[in-house]
Amino acid sequence: MANCTKLHVSEEIVEQILSRLPPKSLMRFKCVCTLWWNLIQSPSFVAKHLSNSLRASSSVSILCKHTVEKKVENNDHAETGDDVETLLSSLYLCNEIDDLVAEVLRVPPPMNQISRSSDLRIAGHCDGITCLKFFVGNVVLCNPAIKEFKLLPKSCLLLPSDNDEYLDLELRYYTEFLGFGYDRKGKDYKVVRFVVYEESCYWFRAEVYTLGSNSWREVETEYTYREFFVMSGYCDQQMFFEGIYYWQVCGQVGECILSFDMGDEIFNVISIPWEEMPDEYHVRLGKWKESIALISCPTVTVVPQSFDIWVMNNSGNVKGSWTKCLTIGPMEGVEIPLLYAPLVFWKSDELLMVAEDGSVVSYNLEKQTVKYLPIHFVGDYFHTQAVVYVNSTVSINGGNKLEGIDNTDFYGINALGDGRLRAV
């Protein structure tokens, strides 16, 4: 009998190989043996897999929130709004953009049963975890790669009570903002949430949720007086970057950027360089080449179109000052809705946008070429969102079901019945 030689692979080599596999494969491989189950579940392996995923550059994952035509069995469409549905889709873009793969993220009910795009918002992403806002007051964390979902506890601090005798005043003008990120000091994931009641009953209060404690607590803020700062929404224009969350907001001090440090839990106001821009310009917050950036363009449609990129300076005490780095375009052969079309830089030289006809295009800054992607949006472009995310095995201690979501009263339907509740 011929001698058989067994190949023994060390546990270290196995760990190195597994840490470079996609989460979907790892979820299956957990069932191979107890050793692999314990390894893939271990915090050290999760951290190593996340580190490898963050360094990987061969492909990019993009989470899109968009509306599409609802599939019906006949040609009879219902009333307005019933012929479209809102989806969360994962786009996998390789270095060669022709290799795009699109996959609809299967979210559990009732999040998969909405038609209005404004009822579901992406409120941040970090390390493979995405924060979603569903109606008003419902906050959901999810990891699309491992199909985990977690509904956060309701806030008793910030939402008015049905028994509040001042409810009529408090709901005259209500604005809600969310942000999600990682606190490097506390080594925990956090959701920051602040609300503003305006007009006759103004106040600004904020709270922070930590994943480790699974609870909310109020944080102190200096924005307590109506005459100092009143904000209303561009809540789709927001992002987390290097420990700080940013929102593009508007108030009595003008259009600006509000930031929140996840570690120090301090808010800060950053100005926008309006004085250096021509009149009648619109800006959109984004990230470009590992820097906070503004994409500016004329509010009046000009063909062919162009965009300016401004980068925020972070050195020393000049945070909040801006430098104009380049101009994108003019772009020939494609019309872009200027107020909301630039979605995200999926690479340093590739900008993802929605064209006027709903087509999704990628514009290459260096080659100045437009590439149409094989996906299409319909309906409300204003609430279309896209974030670049990483595939990870970071757990949120959730499951594949969502229970306890409240889409009644002021959580999604105006309790007063007169259209005065405005939740963004």
Automatic annotation (TrEMBL):
<dbReference type="Pfam" id="PF00646">
    <property type="entry name" value="F-box"/>
</dbReference>
<dbReference type="Pfam" id="PF07734">
    <property type="entry name" value="FBA_1"/>
</dbReference>
<dbReference type="InterPro" id="IPR017451">
    <property type="entry name" value="F-box-assoc_interact_dom"/>
</dbReference>
<protein>
    <submittedName>
        <fullName>Putative F-box domain-containing protein</fullName>
    </submittedName>
</protein>
<dbReference type="InterPro" id="IPR001810">
    <property type="entry name" value="F-box_dom"/>
</dbReference>
<dbReference type="InterPro" id="IPR050796">
    <property type="entry name" value="SCF_F-box_component"/>
</dbReference>
<dbReference type="InterPro" id="IPR036047">
    <property type="entry name" value="F-box-like_dom_sf"/>
</dbReference>
<feature type="domain" description="F-box">
    <location>
        <begin position="9"/>
        <end position="49"/>
    </location>
</feature>
<dbReference type="InterPro" id="IPR006527">
    <property type="entry name" value="F-box-assoc_dom_typ1"/>
</dbReference>
